């Protein structure tokens, strides 16, 4: 290649950097003004395209500031309801949490609210449902060694992969009865199940691909435990730009103080990981768009 | 929780699994019929939302079968032009490929076509531009050991991180002159640069996040070398659902047979990794939508 | 914090950048000298720790240059044998490839060599076995739309998710008979199965976590098709630093020229994606360490 | 292929699944017994290979149960000290946190402890140092829209990408003075800097590859803010099997209750995300192995 023959790059007639920033900032300014008027985080059709399902609004609390309330608008067809790790091991009798001696009342509290939400969205809505399960291959090959060791020590000799006295099977082990989702919230045909070896789900499953293909933009998050798996998945999803709403009565932790703190942490700085609402407010929103739901 | 009090899950009045599949298959059937009439892979506004930029069509070759031709439709604002690894090390004098004794003519051949494309899209279009650079941190901490060792052996003692006789600096090392993009194709303000340690880019950079935020759906791919970095990135992007078009004169390999095979491999099975066109056909398409481009 | 009270950072008594690079380069120089003497890529115990299993060497071809031969040394306990996508859809009667009219002889050719390898390593060795399967959820929710559409067009109306005339079930759909691994190579208890929606596997499954936990450093790769899924997975693994060996008779493509080119592409530049050998040479190596294998 | 000619798969003389699990459980049983005697999580040389640097132990608190203490053993050469987001925007005057009106005392509290640790490990040890920076490209192309919008609303019209009154530059924007790491903790040559657009780092940077190549097994974590970026990165690292130790005086949050809760959440269930210690205990451990450190 002879450099002389090559026409030099044209002086660009655009400065994409500042032009692109100005465009974003102009857009955000507009949505900020809209928010001041409506207290609503509108579904951004300019970003995702026109709604594919029905639009509805859900009241959220302590937003933007503690004591305030606001609304987040959802497109039903772009919304996934996520039920995290509602497995016997975490909330059922003779499961892991029960065997460890934690108060089962705390982690089983969200069963009823999640059931209420599932009951409503399973009838006549186009909201997607995703369940996750934490657990390890029967040979423990996908369990980091320090995780297994810590479980052994805190369990006084009984940890992941062991069968506890009075338990249903090997702890946190795929295929065991205790590992599976409880009957009351069991996935139905057409709902998605993500198996994961970690607290989070995005880095080791097809969940990101699934969300992308389904066109999901907003996640409504429930499950257990609030400060561990629920927070980890909400953080991952938030980092990738999903609009995340936690239903606070649809989640629980092994320690009530940790539960409360986990809720508060989400609300900091105007919603650093998303928004917080509850099952009734969410279903009220859903019903406003799907009134004929039985 | 008393099981008796919990209303049992309703019989679902939907079978999402088959309903969802039928919806996809019905849609694909429709687009298949459209394709038979128009030979065009239309921009799927039903999937991504209405166009944000201008729509234009590009002729692609050997599609769906060898010998056939067809068109792919782009939304300019959702299209990114990707120029892969046009670094001195791969296509410039005294760079890595030159020092190794490969024919520089093969890897520098795409410079002119890429320049032609950049020249056109930099003036007046809203097509995004992404450049990638392969290279390692100066302490080689992000270079897998077997990669460094193999480079040392094939280079008869001169590999990644070494300064070859007559070379410009340490081979494939970030910050060195030979590592940077050649002057003729140097990124302009507002264009994106992805630095990567591997042949691919998706698993170790913010490229997936960038594409998601920019709303990109279609990638127009060029760069070097066809069978190594270009193919790897095209495979990654295709797996994530991006519509990928390779401009065959905008890419080159260190071996002409490998170049030809890499092109053919893309076209198998109706386009297993995407489509193939050339710089003229692409710019003809762009010009049809942006006629006032200088 | 009062800046005055804060002791200023010490002048570092180390320059990690160049020191670290020199350490890598010294190590690589040593292994390069060793290679010149032995023509062997020794198992780097300095990098991974002492062998956990038995060491054995496998002859590889066209390395470092075309016409040369060399050896790669493996630690059996850190080696995984990977059998990619040996599903009815790709190599069995009435599967996808058969239905599309491709020559089944090409993709079924690797069955016997893979069977031979499995037969040998299943008896008495500690080499791990990983199988992969490409396929989509029954509602096609993890299938990128352009993939489904292209399959429909090239299949003249019959693509992914459809039941072809004379076929066994829905093409590339999880749970269907045609989607599963062929009987002759079916996974045994204790072997790993990775389900994936794409050509690659690393970005959408727990395969990276599994390899890390199992302590795998070297992969022996077989399966179909050479230029599509096999190459994609080999590229991903190579980018993450795995030492990859392809067994050339243990792989096949739908086009013989693409198969040949895919093999050659690996060998470029001293092994840009790894090394190439065959099933007999690999098992000869295995047997040298496990002589009592039946 | 004629099925008759194919020898049927041998009956496997191993059951890898249960054998592998038993091996893990036996190992974990042994390390559990060792822990009961020594209260130490020994560096697992059986897993990672023999130490490359010097071994040292650090006292950790509330482990395995609240009120207990234990020790974690480190291999210095496999340890990385991580300083998260110690940027002016988060802990310096006129940075983002300051402008938002949060108490700078809380987020700047860890400066001195981190400085103390850096001072010690920079002299004569082989512990690696990694800094992270949160921030966005100047055109905001890697900032999820909801993140920008929320920052605008909570900031009463001044958010990410804006220049606040009395501020140093555009908030959280790469290249701005306020975005960079504070002078007192500025990276030295040979230390690593990871730029990230999210709260976490693993899914959008080369950090996983870097840790793998450097042979890191243990992370010592500090930085801000405890409940946001620090926790997110610790969760990601823990999911991938890294042994994570948080230095509690080396981290801070915008709210003291959230800080306290974040510390407690780590310690649940015997250390669900790792362990907690402080800068003095960590450096005491380091000094025991590197006594000549100035």
In short:
Four copies of one chain form a homotetramer. Chain A is of the alpha/beta class and 294 residues long.
Keywords:
homotetramer; 11 helices; three-stranded mixed sheet; alpha/beta; six-stranded parallel sheet
Task: Tell me what you see in this structure.
Four copies of one chain form a homotetramer. Chain A has helices spanning 16-38, 45-48, 88-91, 96-99, 104-108, 111-121, 145-154, 207-214, 226-239, 256-267, 279-289; strands at 40-41, 55-61, 69-75, 79-84, 128-134, 192-196, 218-224, 243-252, 275-277. Chain A is of the alpha/beta class. The first copy, chain A, has a single domain, classed as Rossmann fold (3-Layer(aba) Sandwich). In chain A, α6 packs parallel to α11. Chains A and D meet through α1, α7, α9 and α10 of A and α1, α7, α9 and α10 of D.
Through-space gap between termini of chain A: 72 Å
> Uncertain segments of chain A of ≥5 residues (pLDDT<50)?
1-14
Assembly form of the protein: homotetramer
Round the mean pLDDT of chain A to the nearest integer and report it: 92
Secondary structure elements and their pairing?
The structure is a homotetramer of 294-residue chains.
Chain A: H1 16-38, E1 40-41, H2 45-48, E2 55-61, E3 69-75, E4 79-84, H3 88-91, H4 96-99, H5 104-108, H6 111-121, E5 128-134, H7 145-154, E6 192-196, H8 207-214, E7 218-224, H9 226-239, E8 243-252, H10 256-267, E9 275-277, H11 279-289
Parallel strand pairs in A: 1-3, 4-5, 4-7, 5-6, 7-8, 8-9
Antiparallel strand pairs in A: 2-3
Helix pairs in contact in A: 6-11
């Amino acid at each position: 290649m002879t450099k002389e023959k090559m026409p030099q790059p044209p002086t660009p007639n655009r400065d994409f950097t500042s032009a692109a920033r100005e465009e974003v900032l102009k857009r955000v300014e507009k949505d900020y003004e809209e928010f001041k008027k409506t207290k609503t985080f509108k579904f951004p059709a300019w970003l995702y395209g026109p709604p594919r399902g029905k639009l509805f609004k859900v009241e959220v609390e302590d937003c933007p500031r503690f004591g305030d309330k606001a609304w987040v608008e959802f497109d039903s067809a772009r919304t996934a309801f996520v039920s995290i790790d509602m497995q016997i091991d975490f909330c059922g009798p003779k499961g892991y949490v029960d065997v460890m001696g934690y108060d089962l009342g705390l982690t089983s509290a969200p069963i009823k609210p999640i059931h209420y939400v599932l009951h409503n969205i399973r009838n006549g809505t186009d909201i997607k449902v995703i369940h996750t399960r934490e657990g390890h291959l029967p040979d423990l090959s996908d369990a980091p060694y320090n995780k297994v060791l810590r479980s052994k020590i805190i369990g006084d000799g009984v940890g992941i992969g062991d069968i506890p006295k009075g338990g249903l099977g090997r702890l946190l082990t795929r295929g065991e009865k205790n590992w599976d989702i409880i009957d009351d919230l069991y996935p139905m045909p057409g709902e998605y199940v993500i198996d994961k070896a970690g607290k989070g789900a995005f880095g080791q499953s097809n969940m990101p691909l699934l969300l992308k293909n389904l066109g999901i933009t907003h996640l409504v998050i429930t499950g257990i435990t609030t400060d561990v798996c629920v927070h980890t998945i909400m953080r991952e999803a938030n980092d990738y730009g999903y609009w995340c709403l936690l239903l606070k009565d649809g989640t629980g932790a092994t320690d009530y103080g940790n539960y409360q703190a986990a809720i508060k942490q989400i609300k900091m700085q105007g919603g650093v990981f998303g928004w917080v609402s509850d099952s009734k407010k969410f279903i009220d929103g859903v019903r406003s768009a799907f009134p004929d739901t039985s």
